[in-house]
Specification:
Elements: E1 2-4, E2 6-8, E3 11-13, E4 20-25, E5 30-36, H1 40-55, H2 64-80, H3 82-93, H4 97-117, E6 125-127, E7 133-141, E8 144-148, H5 154-168, E9 171-175, H6 182-194, E10 201-203, H7 208-217, E11 221-227, H8 230-242, E12 246-250, E13 256-259, H9 265-277, E14 289-293, H10 294-309, H11 329-345, E15 348-351, E16 368-371, H12 378-381, E17 388-394, H13 397-405, E18 409-410, E19 412-416, H14 420-429, E20 434-437, E21 452-453, E22 456-457, H15 462-467, E23 470-478
Parallel strand pairs: 1-5, 8-9, 8-11, 9-10, 11-12, 13-14, 13-19, 14-17, 16-17, 19-20
Antiparallel strand pairs: 2-3, 4-5, 6-7, 7-23, 12-22, 15-16, 18-21
Helix pairs in contact: 1-7, 2-4, 2-5, 2-6, 3-4, 3-6, 4-5, 7-8, 9-10
The structure holds nicotinamide-adenine-dinucleotide.
Family: Belongs to the aldehyde dehydrogenase family.
Protein name: Aldehyde dehydrogenase (NAD+)
Pfam family, one: Aldedh
């Protein structure tokens, strides 16, 4: 069985404990590799390497344009190694072949974007009220950054933090999810090939309490870029607060997908299906609450069920498969638990609702649609992170705004309507970091993404993201 070590200071490094843990293929249910089980000693080593690279090594002497050039070379290497990276991520996570290929390709574009942005962070000269004195700003890299990521889109979500952090001039220690570490370790080796100095990018694998926690608490870590669930996010935030560190937190969602009766319903159905069932529902931005105007509710639900009936479940490596397995065993069990909770709460299971033990290693759940959902039910309030849709009727715009906002989360929302005034009103009133009008899931490296309310703090992507990794200094000059 293949064995993966940490990646520290430009080379692979065995765990100081000597321990490894298995990683499974969610389609077959079988372990296919062993991964280093890190601890605080490994974290200390990685942070020391990142600190040296930041303050003593060649990295700190590079101009922003030179950093950009290295990142462009890395982007080209991502393209060259894309098939291998995609295959490993698929084996670890169970993503569909088309999805993982597109994500790896997009990753390269992400690095190109931030390579271009590296030398476009401009300072300002500030007129002051003191004669003969002026002030200017400097935007300086924060230093060593911890990147902690979940299992649902490991390469993408790591790149969302890594590319702006490197463009800003930081060095990093990555702690991937214990369920999906392998593609990140393979990816880390490309940095050496691209010519990055040793220690700029390090990876320590293992569990949240054993690696994530000591990394967040390490005195030399200045900023934490975290994507994951709310509970771990709060824990990271509390620990960071003790060291007065800054954080970017990308957490959960319970996003409303709102269909008005004047919408193009053919387009809306496609948006609803991809909104919730893409990535087997394991996406923070999933449109897990479908709000339908009552006048079209019954007809829309009937058409939706006919559409969902055609979704082909199965082997994610096959190009005609449309929905793969749930990525981890605990997540599979959690999704089934929520299906039982919804039934017990009185929601109607209008489609699906069962595990599919006949497929692969058995970690499949049918695409599931619950109707007669009240927005106060747990199935409408809590993040399931699986292929489970809650359908809730509404009367008018005010009702849709009230229900749409009546959750603790505020990551994303979508509105389907042909009425421009209505679209503008909804985009203003919905409390979410992203609002899509007549589409679902559009994201780009150019556009800020992040949550309001309990969905997170700070922004990833676009120009906003590089600021997360920079400190502002003001220099006062007297002649
Ligand atoms: P998780 O919170 O269990 O784990 C995320 C990461 O945090 C893992 O690497 C884990 O090992 C680490 N971790 C756990 N406890 C820690 C601690 N005390 N200190 C430091 N690190 C710790 O999340 P998950 O189950 O891997 O991922 C699913 C969650 O991620 C969902 O809630 C989903 O909404 C969220 N997510 C959010 C976004 C977004 O952009 N908002 C994107 C994808 C996923």
């Amino acid at each position: 069985m293949k064995q993966y070590d940490h990646y520290i200071d430009g080379r692979t490094a065995q765990p100081s404990s000597g321990a490894y843990f298995p990683t499974d293929n969610p389609y077959t249910g079988e372990a296919w590799a062993e991964v280093a089980r890190g601890n605080s000693e490994d974290v200390n080593e990685a942070v020391s390497a990142a600190k040296r690279a930041f303050s003593e090594g060649a990295w700190g002497r590079l101009t922003a344009s030179q950093r950009g050039a290295l990142m462009r070379r890395l982007a080209d290497l991502i393209v060259e190694h894309a098939p291998r990276l995609a295959q490993i991520e698929q084996r670890d996570n169970g993503k569909l072949v088309a999805e993982v290929n597109a994500q790896v390709k997009y990753m390269a574009e992400y690095f190109h974007y931030y390579a271009g942005l590296a030398d476009k962070v401009e300072s300002h000269v500030i007129p002051t009220d003191k004669a003969g004195v002026f002030a200017y700003t400097r935007y300086e890299p924060k230093g060593v950054v911890a990147i902690i990521t979940p299992w649902n889109s490991p390469l993408t979500l790591t790149s969302w933090k890594l590319a702006p952090a490197l463009a800003a001039g930081c060095t990093v220690v990555i702690k991937p999810s214990e369920f999906t570490s392998c593609a990140i370790l393979e990816f880390a080796e490309l940095f050496k090939l691209a010519g990055f100095p040793d220690g700029v990018v390090n990876v320590v694998t293992g569990f949240g309490e054993e690696v994530g926690s000591p990394l967040v608490n390490h005195g030399a870590v200045a900023h934490i870029g975290f994507t994951g669930g709310e509970a771990a996010g709060i824990r990271v935030y509390e620990q960071a607060a003790r060291g007065l560190k800054t954080v970017t937190l990308e957490l959960g969602g319970k996003s409303p997908n709102i269909i008005f009766d004047d919408a193009d319903l053919d387009q809306a159905i496609k948006g609803v299906v991809s909104g919730i069932f893409a990535a087997t529902g394991q996406s923070c931005q999933a449109g897990s609450r479908l709000l339908i105007q009552r006048s079209v509710h019954d007809a829309f639900v009937a058409r939706l069920i006919e559409f969902v009936r055609t979704i082909k479940l199965g082997d994610p490596t096959q190009p005609d498969t449309q929905m793969g397995p749930v990525a981890t065993r605990p997540q599979f069990e959690k999704v089934l638990k929520y299906i039982e909770i919804a039934k017990a709460e009185g929601a109607t299971c209008a489609f699906g609702g069962k595990p599919r033990s006949d497929l692969g290693g058995g970690q499949f759940v049918e695409p599931t649609i619950f109707t007669n959902v009240d927005n106060r039910m747990r199935i409408a309030q809590e993040e399931v992170f699986g292929p489970v849709l809650s359908v809730i009727p509404f009367e008018n715009e005010q009702d849709a705004i009230r229900i749409g906002n009546d959750v603790l989360y505020g990551l994303a929302a979508a509105v389907w309507t042909r009425d421009l005034q209505r679209a503008l009103l909804m985009s203003e009133k919905l409390k979410a970091g992203t609002v899509w009008i007549n589409n679902y899931r559009a994201t780009s490296f150019t556009s800020p993404f992040g949550g309001m309310k309990r969905s997170g703090i700070g922004r990833e992507s676009g120009i906003d993201a590089i600021r997360e990794y920079l400190d502002t200094k003001c220099v006062w000059m007297s002649a």
